[in-house]
Structures are given as structure tokens and as C-alpha cells.
Design brief:
The complex is a heterodimer. Chain A is α/β, with parallel strands linked by helices. Chain A has eight helices and 17 strands. By secondary structure, chain B is of the alpha+beta class. Classes of the chains: A alpha/beta, B alpha+beta.
Chain lengths: ~375, ~160
Amino acid sequence: MAPIPQLLIGIGAISAVTTVLAIIMVIADATIANYGDVQIRINDEKEVTVEGGRPLLSSLMEEKIFIPSACGGRGSCGLCKVQVTSDIGDYLPTELPWISDEEKTENIRLSCQLKLKKDISIQIPEELFNVREYECEVASIVDLTYDIKQVILRLKEPAEINFKAGQYIQFQVPEYELTSESVYRAYSMASQPSRHNEVELEVRLIPNGICTTYVFEHLKEGDTVTINGPYGDFHLRETDARIIFIAGGSGNAPVKSILYNMLENNNSREALYFFGARAVRDLFLVDEMKELENKLSNFKYIPALSEPLPEENWKGETGLITEVLDRHIDSGENTEAYLCGSPGMIDAAVAVLTKNGIPEDKIYYDKFA
Amino acid sequence: MKQTVQMREIQDKMKPGVITRDGFLGTDSRNLIDILIEDDAKVKRINLTHGQIAGRMQELREAGKRGLGDFISVAPHFEVRVDMVRGKLPCPFGHPGLIQKTNIQVRNLEKNREIAFTDMHIHIIAEHGFYEGKGSPYRLEVRDLIEILEIELPEE
């Protein structure tokens, strides 16, 4: 039997050699490897040629094909999924946490993690071909509350956008003190689709948030910004069911878009809008919503405060929005619900809605819009 | 102190752009092992454990979750907001699974002080005694955590 010191030296030597080899492979891949040009075949109808060795997500973006992504390609949001129909090898460990068993059978992959080393065929939703990059001018910035701003962007090139009420865009934040590279963040459009030449956003300040800090501290009227979109499957379904909207904070944006779209289309479906805030100072656009109650015959706006201040003399609904919701819903029959807010709010609201008889497949939400 | 290859690999994962844009180390050029030893000593000197500190952070996080993304009052004089955002991150120390990106803001109204941390902080403090490197925008000071979160110190 080998003495223990010799054994340790042996293990140490093997570890050192393995580490050195791994480092050499990484350096070689980054500096020596040349994959040449690579073809990306999309939906069996479009083909683009890109430089090999780079991630699929950014390669597609350079070709103006935008796959939604919220983390800048770091594999931490799990959004940028595409179906790969050619052989590109096994899943990477960085992809696996985001891929369900069902998705594995369809070879759904995270496009930010796939480095293009050979030709590839992919399938993406057709609607992504409608996604464009837009250069815009900041037309106005208005404080809605102390921590929510309304930003209106006037489209310059292209000058018009087509979207469904409830969808979102990605806002490009340029390099500045909080980020050494440009990044994208998703925001729902508060404007309705008929406003083809502008996009209205509601941006809530997040401490140290890269995009929100940029909007609150740097963005000025007249600035030029870049967005891309539209994205998302959050839109009003064409049925005659009663509608329940639930939102908090800047989650108001897609609901506002849908409501104005309903108004313009003379949609008289019964609709209740539960809007949760903490105190009066967190409410915004209340007069506008009350005015909509007069214009939309079957619409009712129900703002609710979880902790109103005594001096605010609040006479409306109080309690968490889920508690207020529970008090108002007596039946889930022929009802659809549309939710936009934090994941915590959405999970709690879904529990209340299903308890009251609304099936999960009639509850639509965009947790992070 | 000289650190192991394994520790050096962990430190590499903490650099900017690997797991998070800013990384975990800030301007701290020390070996990870030295960062851990220094913070561990600070906690031991006051007879606390990293688990106790993380436990208090978790307690306030759970209480703040009731606010559904908004600030909510938490007895006796705190306001807490728990805000989850899209995405999950791996632990730089290699723990299996992913940690939800969650921002937690705690305001101590009596002391008029505020602190922000994440689910990742709760994990890396509880499991690894790591408070991030000096100069990191997300570095947490043990003293701030004790004072703002009012973590009770054991009697001598």
C-alpha cells in the first residue's frame, strides 16, 4: 500500500494536470478556435449566415431577429428558448435548470448558452418575425408617483409599431456608470395599439436596478433610445366571459392598454379592475380610471390600499389586494382573469381565483412584464 | 492565506460577468479564503453564528412577503418589501439548484436606517459565511445587519 504522503502527492499531481489541461482548452477555445461562418436555418424558410463561435442569441440579434431575454445572455432568466431541429449535442449544465422533461423531448434549448460551432436549424414562434428594433425620441417623462414614472417614446425609425394590447417591449439601456455594456429590460406598453407612432411605459424605481436607475437619473426628454418588440402572450382573449384584472404598481401598464383598446373597439364585456397599492401616495391615474368607468359601460375600477395612513382619510377598499378580491368574487363562472405584478402577488392571486372557481387555464398573467 | 485550487475556482466564478454582471468581490483583491476568515472572525467575536444572522434575514423576508411586492409593516417598527424578479442564479460555491432573484429592502423606522439584500445573500451567509468582497455594491457589513435588523447578541 502506498504511504499517505505519496498518495496525496499523486492526487495533487493529477488534479494539477487536469486543471492545467482545462485552462488550456478554455484559452484555446477562446483564442485559437475558428469555426468560420455558420448557417442558421430558421423555421425552414429563412437562412442567415453568421460568424461561428458566438452564442445563438446574440448572433440572431445581430441579424435583427430578437428572442426575448431578460438577463443579457447569462443564462439566469430562462427566457430565450428556441427549438433546435438539428443535432447540436447534449444539453449544457447551464441549460438544464430551465428545461422541463417535456421540453427536452422537443429539444428546446437556451439560445444564450448555445455557442455556434456548426450549421444549425431552429424553430421560433412566427410572431417573433414581427419583432423590430425601433429608434425613438423621449417625448415626455412624467412622475406618476414618487417611484413610478410614465415615459412616452415617439417612434422615429421605423415610425410605426403594430402590437396587441398587453404586450411588452425591451428597452435598451446604454453603457453608463452601472453597466459596462448595453442591456435590455422588459416593460409592458401602457399605450393602446391605435397609438401606432408612440409607446407609453410605466417604470417603477428598483434600488440599484440598472434600467430603472437609468430612467430615473439619466433619461431626459429629447434623448434618443432604442427598443425592440413587441413580445408576449398577455392579451385579451376573444370571448364573452367576465373579465377580472388584477395589478399593482407598474403592472397597471398592460391593463391600461387593454382597457383603452376595449373602449376603442366598443367592447362592453363586464370587467372588474382590482388595483393594489399600499397607501394613497402609491395610487396613480385614479381619475383616468374613474373616467373610464363612465365610458366603458360594464367596467368597474376597485383600488385597494393595504396600509392607508390615517391622515389620508381613505374611504375605499382596504386590505391586501388578494383579500379584497376574495371579498368581491362570489363565482368563477364564465370568468377570465388577467394579472400583472410581482410573482408573489400573482401566486397569491391565482390561489384566491382558483379557490373561487376560476380554472387555472382561464387565468392569464405575465409575472415579470 | 494560501487557498486551495477549489477555492480559487470558486473565486473565479465570483468575478464580474460570470454569474452576475457585477460579480461578488468588488474591489477586494484578497484571496476568498481571507475574506471568509475575516468576516467569520467578526461574527465569532460577538458570539453569533452566520446561521443566526441569515435566520433573521430570512425571518424578515418571510414577513415581508405578505406585502405582495409592496412595502408592508412588520412589528415592531420595520417596513419590508420583497420583490422577486425574473431569473435564478447558481450559488458560486457550487451548491446544487438555483436561487430565485429576490430583492429584499428592510427599513428600520426607529433608527431611520435601511438595508437591502437578496435571497442569494441569505444563502451565501447561511451556508458559507460570505458577505461579498469589499467594494462590491452588494457587500453586507455584519455590523449593519446586526444594527438595522436588530439581531440580538447573546450575553457574554
